[in-house]
User: Which sequence fits this backbone?
C-alpha cells in the first residue's frame, strides 16, 4: 500500500512539469470535486470546483512533504488534501472547520 502512494506522489516530487490531480473533498455528508494543477517550477497551483465556476491560480509553497496554497495543504505522500477552515472561526476562538479530501494523479486526461 505504501508503495502505491509513493508511486502516485513520485511524479510531483521528481518532475518539474505541472501535475494534474482530481480530488474529492468531504464535508459532513456532502462531497465536492476539485481539480488541481500543481506547477512547482512556477510556485503556483490552479484549482477549480464546480461551485466556483472559474479556475483560480494562487501562489504555492512546495516542500518535499507538502504543497500549501490558499488555506489548503496537500500531503504529497498520501495525496490527502486538507482545507484549514476559515480565519473568522479561528479569530473567534472556536475550533476551525477542517475539510479533508483525497486526490489522485490524472494521467492522459483520465
Assistant:
Amino acid at each position: 500500500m505504501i508503495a502505491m502512494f509513493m508511486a502516485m506522489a513520485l511524479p510531483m516530487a521528481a518532475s518539474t512539469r505541472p501535475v494534474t490531480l482530481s480530488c474529492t473533498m468531504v464535508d459532513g455528508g456532502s462531497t465536492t470535486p476539485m481539480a488541481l494543477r500543481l506547477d512547482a517550477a512556477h510556485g503556483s497551483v490552479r484549482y477549480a470546483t464546480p461551485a466556483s465556476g472559474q479556475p483560480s491560480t494562487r501562489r504555492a509553497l512546495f516542500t518535499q512533504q507538502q504543497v500549501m496554497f490558499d488555506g489548503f495543504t496537500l500531503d504529497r505522500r498520501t495525496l490527502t488534501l486538507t482545507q484549514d477552515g476559515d480565519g473568522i472561526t479561528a479569530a473567534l476562538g472556536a475550533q476551525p472547520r477542517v475539510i479533508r479530501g483525497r486526490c489522485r494523479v490524472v494521467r492522459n486526461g483520465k
User: Anything to note?
Assistant: The chain has one domain: 2-105. The mean pLDDT is 81. The longest strand covers residues 30-39. Residues 66 and 76 are 5 Å apart (CA to CA).
